[in-house]
Amino acid sequence: MDGLGGALRAWRERLTTADVGLPSFGRRRAPGLRREEVAALAGVSVDYLVRLEQGRARHPSAQVAEALARALRLHDTERDHLLHLAGLADPQPGLVPTRITPGVQRLLDRFGDAPVSVLDAAWNLLAWNPLWAALIGDPSNWHGRDRNLVWRAFTDRPSRVVLTDAEHEQWRSGLVADLRLVLARYPDDPSLAALVGELNRTSEAFAALWATGGVGVQAAARKTFLHPDVGHLTLDCDVLVVQGTDLRVVAYTAVPSSADAEALALIGVLGLQTVS
Fold first, then answer.
1. Strand 231-242 and strand 247-253: pairing?
2. pLDDT digits over 76-101, tens only?
3. Residue 2: its pLDDT value, please?
4. What is the per-residue pLDDT across 9-19, written as a single tens digit (0 to 9) for each?
5. Which residues contact 215 (CB under 8 A, 6 or more apart)?
6. Which CATH number applies to 102-270?
7. Between the CA of residue 168 and those of 93, 122, 157, what are the distances in Å?
8. C-alpha–C-alpha distance, residues 172 and 176, integer Å
9. Which one of 29, 119, 173, 203 has the minimum C-beta count within 10 Å?
10. Beta-ladder partners of 242
């Protein structure tokens, strides 16, 4: 297992679909997961994963390296080795934690009937399960700032969430107040400071809310979605904070036996495919 490429191949080949919560369809010609499956789990392109495994790309970003470690279900020592092979140092104290613990990863794997995602304290999307992607829209094409929910809220990125004007303002106000608390906890994180600075320069609405000095925690709420094939459905949204990591686990659930529950189940069947 020489170099980053060899390590990635070896880790991929030892996994089964059952290890990562994917369905299995018959025997496979080669052991382990397919590159397409690992790429989807990590939210990277198949071409980029191929280049990493073949040694044509050697220095993934910290975000990509962490995503690969999660997708490959690496334990702590292996994850540290991956960072070393990629030429990345472990995050320094005082930065917003982005590492998903094995326990949180197991939650993602087991919540197959509920859309679940994991975000860091600064509202950067780190990981999600297939049903979350099917409900929200495939986030694997979101890169950089587009994976930050505050950025998306203030730069009018497409969203399937249906909000009234009042709900939209309340949502954005809550995000800004929450982000101010996060900045107070992590004042030395340059990425977080850059996000706040860029939002202040880019969005007049954000700048106005930031100037008020309000602080608070973004509360959970019921949310209505407009899915392109299923139509409207309303779900309960719960935000669970993982103690010791500041990770946010966001889960959507429907009232049992309701029309919304039936709609969510249909979305699970459709996955990311669209009905023509």
1. antiparallel
2. 888 888 888 888 876 667 888 888 88
3. 60
4. 989 999 888 88
5. 177, 180, 181, 184
6. 3.30.450.180
7. 35, 19, 13
8. 6
9. 29
10. 247
Sequence spans of domains, the chain: 3-85, 102-270
pTM of the model: 0.75
What are the residues whose beta carbons fall under 8 Å from the beta carbon of 265, sequence distance 6 or more? 113
Q: Are 117 and 128 in contact (CB under 8 A)?
A: yes
- What is the distance between the alpha carbons of residues 57 and 173, in angstroms, rounded to a whole number? 41
Please answer whether residues 221 and 237 qualify as being in contact, where contact means their C-beta atoms are separated by less than 8 angstroms. Answer: yes
Residue 222's DSSP bridge partners are 236
The CA R_g of the chain, rounded to the nearest whole Å, is: 19
Instruction: Give the DSSP per-residue string, 237-269.
Output: EEEEEETTTTEEEEEEE--TTSHHHHHHHHHHH
Structure tokens at 122: 């600064």
What pLDDT, on the 0 to 100 scale, is given for residue 91? 64
Class at the top of the CATH hierarchy for domain 3-85: mainly alpha
The DSSP 8-state label assigned to residue 148 in this structure reads: B
